[in-house]
Design brief:
The protein has 285 residues and is an alpha/beta fold. It contains eleven helices and ten strands.
Length: 285
């Protein structure tokens, strides 16, 4: 994946570098397309464009089993012709934040960046406190990327962040859901309770399961409905983008985009359709 905006390309710089599957390149390319359009397209419309990454990782990753390296979401958002005015990076892994901060200082000096070590679900209020206060004389638009390895993002976190004008790109990890349904079904497990912000989802799922309904599709529909309570349209469900593994062609997750602006969905549709052609609503495998 090449980035030619007088910036950097991913390489082994000796700092802590996590591994990712080769399928992640698809995700990062789409994310790069969207960031480019968002940051440049909104440059003259808002006084402050803010980028938040709730699972920022280390900025560079190595493709598992290869000698190839890629920029991950946090550095992709900096590697733009029209960078954001402010960046907020959160990760529960201190090693990731330390490596990311060193990379930012070395390759993107002078940027306004805040780093938070900890669980983003516990740090939402702190993240909000770092955002500039919007006013008629200081307009603010925020893009928040939520890229966890599992269903570890709580809906209450989305509700808290929604106090600001914010677009979200959220990775919905259906591999986690498919593999661990039997773990999440018992009422003693609160993972999906927290993910959906609802403890009553089991009642609806018990009825649908008898009809051989797809568990992942059920969760996607439920999640979009929860986001609609925050003022986001159901367009998110119609524009889900599926990501599959490159070797086994397994359906891994969806990228779900949420915006209250038609322009946001215009950018998103161009970004997702500019990548590898896949049908949006695909819950097979």
């Amino acid at each position: 994946m090449n980035f030619n905006y007088n910036s950097i390309e991913a390489f082994n710089d000796g700092l802590f570098t996590p591994e990712v599957g080769s399928w992640a390149e698809n995700k990062y390319e789409i994310l790069h397309h969207y960031n480019h359009m968002f940051a440049t397209g909104m440059k003259n419309r808002f006084d402050n464009r803010v980028y938040i990454d709730l699972f920022s990782s280390a900025g560079i990753a190595q493709i598992r089993g290869t000698n190839r390296f890629v920029l991950t979401s946090s550095l992709i958002a900096m590697n733009l012709p029209d960078p954001y005015n402010q960046y907020i990076y959160c990760d529960i892994d201190k090693k990731c934040i330390e490596a990311l901060s060193q990379r930012v200082e070395k390759y993107f000096p002078g940027k306004k960046v805040d780093y938070i070590v900890g669980d983003c679900n516990e740090k939402a209020a702190e993240i909000l406190s770092l955002l500039p206060k919007p006013s008629k004389l200081n307009t603010v638009l925020t893009f928040c990327v939520v890229d966890p390895f599992n269903l570890g993002i709580n809906f209450e976190t989305m509700r808290t962040l929604n106090k600001y004008r914010m677009d979200f790109l959220i990775l919905l990890s259906w591999m986690d859901a498919s593999r661990n349904e039997y773990i999440y079904i018992p009422p003693t497990n609160e993972r999906i309770d927290n993910f959906l912000g609802d403890k009553k989802w089991r009642e609806k799922w018990a009825k649908l399961k008898k009809e051989n309904y797809d568990f992942r599709k059920f969760l996607a529909e439920e999640y979009v409905q929860r986001m609609m309570t925050l003022g986001y349209p159901d367009t998110a469900f119609k524009t889900l983008f599926p990501i599959r593994s490159t070797d086994k062609k397994l359906f891994l997750y969806h990228l779900a985009f949420f915006s209250k602006s038609e322009k946001g969905y215009d950018f998103w549709n161009k970004a997702r359709l500019g990548g590898p052609k896949q049908t949006s609503l695909n819950f097979e495998d």
